[in-house]
Amino acid sequence: MTETMDISDYLAQGGRLTNPANVPSRYRAELMKIMATFVDSELAGAAGFADVINAGPGIKERIAAARIVLEKTDNADKVLKIMGEFGANTDRYVDHHPWTDRLPRDTAPGASRNAHDMRLSVLNYPLAGWTDAVVMNLLMGLAVGVQLSEFLSSSYQPFAEAIREAAPREKRHTELAAEGVERLIRQGKTNAVKQSVAYWWPRVSESFGTGVSPRSDALKAMGLRSKSNAELHDAWTGLASAALEKLGLERPATLA
Amino acid sequence: MARFHPLSVTDVTKTIRDAVVVTLKPVNGGDFDFIQGQYLTFRQNFDGTEVRRSYSICAGKDDGVLQVGIKKVEGGAFSTWANEALAPGMTIEAMEPMGSFHTPIDPQQAKNYLGFAGGSGITPVLSIMKTVLAREPRSTFTLVYANRGVNTIMFREELEDLKNLHMGRLTVVHVLESDAQDIDLFTGRVDAGKCKALFEHWIDIDSVDTSFICGPEPMMLGIAAALREHGLTDDQIKFELFASAQPGRLKRKASSAANGVAAKSTEATITMDGSARSFTMNKDQSVLDAALENALDAPYACKAGVCSTCKCKLLEGEVEMLANHALEDYEVAQGYVLSCQSYPLTDRVVVDFDQ
């Protein structure tokens, strides 16, 4: 049983890779990029949320916010461990980046990544208080759900397994956000919610990336992605519109 | 961070003509308390070139030893050395156990496991099997073990002993490619068609909770396809691709050797924390690795051209940057490079980590 096949054929046919030793260099670079984006986004997201824990109007809200910070950090840890198996210096990785860094609030949507981390662009914008944080968490949470669904069947098995653990927790964070927005609306803060929706919608929308990436086919062939950015974006638009509708809100009219 | 620890070789036993089981003992430090199904990554120098190879642990959790199985691969520097030269008393370097080819053990659960192994792919499956049978008294294990012929079956006697020890809970199906057996079903290759036939006549696939597959690529694809067709989901199928196609570390060497006349080494000067150090480095080595090897505390994190922690400025000479996912064009124009991805092209390079 020594018969082997080309690793790219193996991947194109749905094969799984399981450890750094049998990963080709191109694949490794793309996988590291995907994992770094996940880790940086989770760490930046957790860091942003840590700042609003004390803005929570009640004890339940603060517990929810603290839990989100804890679990997002833990999700980052799971994937960072995998990066560590590829030789990443995990201790230095976490300390190296200023995860709380944000751009000025009025920066236009789609601004490119700041400094030198790989977080999704939406995480470069600052949260403006509790209501804003909850709305951002709802819209972004739905986006994360869509994006993670891509990785559940990643051809790098340890990464797919880490995402299978992370995805249900992220889903719960989104549910907490939906409950939070509902409460804010009941409390008569509809206008503030609407303002935050108008602010975050285009910024979350931009985080899916634009146009057709020439790397898209290559990533598909490697089994690291299965859908295009546009397909993921459409899925999110549908989910987010429905979530807002359920809350008696509309998606911002003129925006992407 | 992953680093190497010395292990002393306490025993080397041949299992078949071209495979050995190596027993190891940590010398000073490192957490080698493995999980069943994990592997060790070794490094060894051959003619000045470092070769890293990963081999699965074949011992069960309760065996009280750390053992890996190493099958000789045609032309494989490491496996040939392990089979021909490795002997008790020698010291070898390995990283702590890694890998996620396992599912949680729970003494209370009664699961039906189905393992597939091709040739030396038996090593991690054996570790899992021994551990599951010993620690989950209500679970069963069925092993489909593919080999060329009877004399290439690794751990054949050990498997027989295990069957006797765990009477009724372990089933082993040997499928041999070239040696005819009494039952036709057990002759040939293990592919999707063979699996289908096994599921019809021999294995109750509907009762299987978790499947482990370790073998060469085409075999794994065929088995996975058959398992999916019979209703198993991705999280029920665990793959371990064994080390047939290992990475291109030696490829660079081959290509640079082809350059012939050009010098293989570079005079490097590296400035860090205000002081400069000069040394000779190999052109097949990244600037970062050379710095680390020369006891410079160079910053790095991902080592894949992604995170930019290892950024430095090239002041003199030329390097080839293999991957760059972190630096902007203007930074590259200013002479910044990712040291983890940079290999010297000129006989002299000067870089500065402080800028």
Structure in a nutshell:
Chain A: This is 1,2-phenylacetyl-CoA epoxidase catalytic subunit. Chain A has 256 residues and is mainly α.
Structure description:
The complex is a heterodimer of chains A (256) and B (355). Helix content of chain A is 63%, strand content 0%. Chain A is globular and about 70 Å long. Chain A has helices at 7-12, 25-50, 59-85, 90-96, 129-151, 157-186, 190-206, 215-221, 229-246. Chain A contains nine helices and no strands. Chain A is mostly helical. In chain A, helix 2 packs antiparallel against helix 3 (59-85), helix 5 (129-151) runs antiparallel to helix 6 and helix 5 (129-151) crosses helix 9 (229-246). Chain A has one domain: Ferritin (Up-down Bundle), CATH 1.20.1260.10. The longest helix of chain A is centred in the C-terminal third of the chain and has 30 residues, at 157-186. Chain B is of the alpha/beta class and 355 residues long. Chain B has three domains: 4-95, Elongation Factor Tu (Ef-tu), domain 3, CATH 2.40.30; 112-241, 3-Layer(aba) Sandwich (Rossmann fold), CATH 3.40.50.80; 264-352, Ubiquitin-like (UB roll) (Roll). Chain B contains eight helices and 18 strands. Chain B has helices spanning 77-84, 122-135, 156-165, 192-201, 217-229, 249-257, 287-293, 329-333, and strands at 4-16, 19-26, 39-46, 49-56, 66-71, 91-95, 112-118, 140-147, 170-176, 210-215, 237-241, 265-272, 275-282, 311-316, 319-321, 336-338, 342-344, 348-352. In chain B, the strands form four sheets. Chain B has a six-stranded antiparallel β-sheet with strand order 4-3-6-1-2-5. In chain B, strand 3 and strand 4 form a beta hairpin. In chain B, helix 4 packs across helix 5 (217-229). The two termini of chain B are 26 Å apart. The interface between A and B is large, with 48 and 58 residues. Chain B: Residues 266-355 form the 2Fe-2S ferredoxin-type domain. Chain B: It holds the Pfam family FAD_binding_6. Chain B: GO terms for molecular function: 2 iron, 2 sulfur cluster binding; flavin adenine dinucleotide binding; metal ion binding; oxidoreductase activity.
